[in-house]
Design a protein that fits this description.
By secondary structure, the chain is of the alpha+beta class. The chain is built from 5 helices and 11 strands. It has one domain: Nucleoside Triphosphate Pyrophosphohydrolase. GO terms for molecular function: coenzyme A diphosphatase activity; metal ion binding.
Length: 239
Amino acid sequence: MSASDPTPLSRIPNFDPRAVPVRGVDRHLPPVPAERLTPEALRRRFLAPPAWQPEVRAEPRFVERQPASAAVLVPLVMRPEPTLLLTQRTAQMRNHSAQIAFPGGRVDAMDADAADAALREAQEEVGLARDQIEVLGTLPTYTTGTAFVITPVVALVRPGYTLKTNPVEVADAFEVPLAFLLNPAHHRRHALEFEGVAREWFSMPWPDAEEAVAQGLTERFIWGATAGMLRNFYRFMVA
């Protein structure tokens, strides 16, 4: 890392993304209508995508190495009220440890394409079988500060699956209502300046801290790259 490279947020002393002030919440933006979240509507949207632009494409780079291709699965579980399956990474992971993430990882030479890599990683990480998954398509790449160029692969997942998490990589797996994540009233904007470098990111805590305490639930603090890709998914779905 050179002197001009920004410091990773995770290495800022005492950094806690929950403690960074919220600069704004996008309540003025419309949520994705419920009728667009059905399996047939999602299939139609990916078959004939609208004109749109991703909002978040890349984070400030803070490593000196060649970019690496990666893929994640955006697994939409087709319940009566659709949900999104997410994971919490274990604390010992080298990159993005303990963060909320999509199942995914590097694209290997053996993978046919990004979708094949995302399906393989989902099976390795959480035991999600390929025969439970229908790939719809991909979203534009998202480049992390750790130089991973990630292709989000959006897919439908049939309910009734049984997960088997890899304890080395995954601390937990859980579902979040898709309507919640695609409603910008829950999209919080954060900004922080450290060593002269400005950082901005989204968070989408579910449920929020007060609701979690009231219901005795664990707050899932979705932020960073995962929230950025979800924000792009929102832009795609609302266009």
